[in-house]
Amino acid sequence: MADAASAVSSGQLASRGQRFAGHLFEIxxxxxxxxxGWIFWFVNTAPNGQSPAKRLxxxxxxxxxxxxxxxxxxxxxxxxVKVLLFVLLDLLLLSMEVEGGxxxxxxxxxxxLVAAGWCAWDGQRQCLWDKVAGTRVVVTSHGRRSA
Length: 147
Prior knowledge:
Blueprint: H1 2-10, H2 16-32, H3 36-45, H4 52-57, E1 59-62, H5 71-94, E2 97-98, E3 102-103, H6 105-117, H7 128-133, E4 136-139
Antiparallel strand pairs: 1-4, 2-3
Helix pairs in contact: 5-6
């Protein structure tokens, strides 16, 4: 909890590079644990406003007041919006075809990439799911490099 308190008081936003690394690392961890290990790990890290990758990379998700995101907010952000919404979009698009038989499933992947990349040009470095959940990502004290 000491790390959580210091992250909240500093409010230093995670850099665009850290956010990108977090996205990639999350995908790798999910794949390596076949999803199951990631879910159990997420249940343990989410109450502190972290996903497995954010825990390892020294980042934390905070709410508008700068407090660690609650378990409910983390589930809404990381499971409902970040994953299920885009899976449903992909399934919907998978059932559609445009003239010439081109499948639209790739559009769901493109939409997820745009949502994930949103933090690259957003002033608060928020991805679209951060905007929906009212969160931002900060660096914890052990994730900060000393000058």
